[in-house]
Please model this.
Amino acid sequence: MATYSQLVTRLSAEEKIYLLMYPEHASTIKKYADKAFAESKRRFGQSLTNGRGDAFRHCIWSAMLCREIGFVGALRYTTAHETFEANPPAEKAMDLHNNAVGLQIGRVSAPDELLIARSLVALRAGQLEVIG
Amino acid sequence: MNSVDEQAKILGTREFTVESWAAASQLERARMTASFLHQYDATDLDRSGIIKLLGRPTAYYNYDSNAAYIVGPTTVSSKYGDGYLLVFETDKDNGNVDRVFFVPDVE
Model:
């Protein structure tokens, strides 16, 4: 796994701006990105692009970030994460939608397990978008 | 550490074509990676160019913008999956692939 300093060189311009403003959020963002990936892989295997696993990963990452850094910060960072020229519009729309669902789930202070469970419920209820 | 081309050669020398890659198993795809890297300079491509040649990514590496494919034997493992992860890491500012590598290294 890359270190955060390695990841920083791969960030979008919008993400870099956010982290310049809120450098104290960097380790939290990385920690929960890793956790979201691991949880998604455990449940959905390694196919984590555009499918159900991808939708779930975006949802739980946004939910946990919302709890940790607040709704506004999580909204700004997860949106910045998707804001780059080469991001295909359909994929960007899917990711932003699933982030938005996760942000709502994360508005209540709850342990990871509960946020993950609520994200699974959202997925099964068809509230998350999947393409491909 | 060997270059990605040298690492790919360790996996095999089967000729890459778009059609054969699309129909191939994870194990067979590994054998085509050297031929693919010989035929195409991935750093001349962007993510959509990679997807046109290799199809929908089968794995995830840190960001959706990176196209990644699991190839080779499932006896090799990393946190990203069972097999070698062939990663086309892209520059988010311009969308171009700027680095190609395996995770873990092929030795």
Notes: The helical segments of chain A are 4-8, 13-21, 26-44, 52-69, 71-82, 89-105, 112-124. Chain A touches chain B at residues 1-2, 7, 10-13, 33, 37-38, 41, 45-50, 54, 57, 84-88, 91, 95, 132 (CB under 8 Å). The CA atoms of residues 63 and 115 of chain A lie 7 Å apart. The mean pLDDT of chain A is 90.
